[in-house]
Structures are given as structure tokens and as C-alpha cells.
Write a structure and sequence with these properties.
The chain is α+β, with helices and mostly antiparallel strands. It has a single domain (about 5-160), classed as 3-Layer(aba) Sandwich (Aminopeptidase), CATH 3.40.630. Helices cover about 35% and strands about 20% of the residues. A 5-stranded mixed beta sheet has the order 1-2-3-4-5, with helices on both faces. Helix 1 packs across helix 2 (about 40-45). The longest helix is centred in the middle third of the chain and has 15 residues, at about 100-110. The termini are far apart.
Length: about 170
């Protein structure tokens, strides 16, 4: 087995992390959606109020992957959890244990912090990742649908004067 090392990211890794984010976006066919800059990543991970944390996966001393995560909260559990935003291993390093090591380290961090759960999402078409996660014992949450507000829709809701845009059921 190759020499795998998982380490916390440092500010000097900002360019590497952004490059890995771009490689992940390319793999997910979403390269056009990456607007983050090195300054954005540096501020988010290493600024005065970090929003997330990252780990770097190395194989034979070379960086080949990363995991980026942050805390969320479960009202039902009354405890923090960890949300894994991204985990990515470069294609030429896959199948050698780096992804497993990254996820194991994120799980260890969650356990050490007393988190009630570790969650993430995966694209429906990413069968290799889905199979990998199932082998780890992860279960898909098929009874939940993810909703997202971005751009103009987010701004519209934020500026809404309290008027409901139409009759609806729910909150």
C-alpha cells in the first residue's frame, strides 16, 4: 500500500485547494459554476472567522485530494454534526485508499467533537462514489429533497417585505 498521509490544510494550501475544487467541478461537469478565488478560499478557511475546515490527502508525499467540511446542527439530536461539502481524489490516485483515509479522518474528527452525524450529498449519476459510500456503511436519505436558493432568487427572498408569493402549505 502506498504511503498515505492525511493532514489539516494550512493557509499555504489555498492555491492547491482551489485547484482541487476546480478539478472536482470539472469532474462533476460544473466547471462553469466555480467563481471562488484564492482570496475567497483563504478567507473562508483561514480568516478571522473560518466557515469551514479542510484536510489534504497525500500519496507518496504528493497532494492528491482534499476534504472540506463544516459544522451543522441537528435540532432532533440537540447536537452538532459535520457536513462534508466536498471530498475529491485526483483520478490517477483513486482506488489506492486516499478517499477512504480522508473520510475516516473526517469521521474521527466528528466522533472526537461529539457530533451526532456526518452527512454529505452525491450526484445521482456518480455511481462509483455511491458504491464507495455504501461500502463504508453510509445510507442514502431517499426521503429528503434538497432545496437551494441562489443568486436572484436568494436576493428576492431576502428583500421580500413579508408578502407570500402565493398560497402554499408549509412554514
Amino acid at each position: 500500500m502506498a504511503d498515505i498521509r492525511i493532514r489539516p490544510a494550512i493557509a499555504g494550501d489555498t492555491g492547491l485547494i482551489l485547484a482541487l475544487i476546480r478539478e472536482l467541478a470539472d469532474y462533476e461537469r460544473r466547471a462553469h459554476q466555480v467563481v471562488a478565488t484564492e482570496a475567497d478560499v483563504r478567507e473562508a478557511l483561514f480568516g478571522d472567522r473560518p466557515a469551514a475546515e479542510a484536510l489534504i490527502g497525500e500519496l507518496g508525499g504528493q497532494p492528491v485530494g482534499f476534504a472540506l467540511f463544516f459544522h451543522n446542527f441537528s435540532t432532533f439530536l440537540g447536537r452538532r454534526g459535520l457536513y462534508l461539502e466536498d471530498v475529491f481524489v485526483r483520478p490517477d490516485a483513486r482506488g489506492r485508499g486516499v478517499g477512504h483515509a480522508l473520510l475516516r479522518e473526517v469521521a474521527r474528527i466528528a466522533a472526537d467533537r461529539g457530533c451526532g452525524r456526518l452527512e454529505w450529498v452525491v450526484l445521482d449519476w456518480n455511481e462509483p462514489a455511491i458504491a464507495f459510500y455504501r461500502r463504508l456503511g453510509a445510507e442514502p436519505m431517499s426521503d429528503w429533497t434538497i432545496f437551494r436558493l441562489t443568486g436572484e432568487a436568494l436576493a428576492r427572498l431576502a428583500e421580500n417585505d413579508g408578502q407570500t408569493p402565493g398560497r402554499q402549505a408549509g412554514p
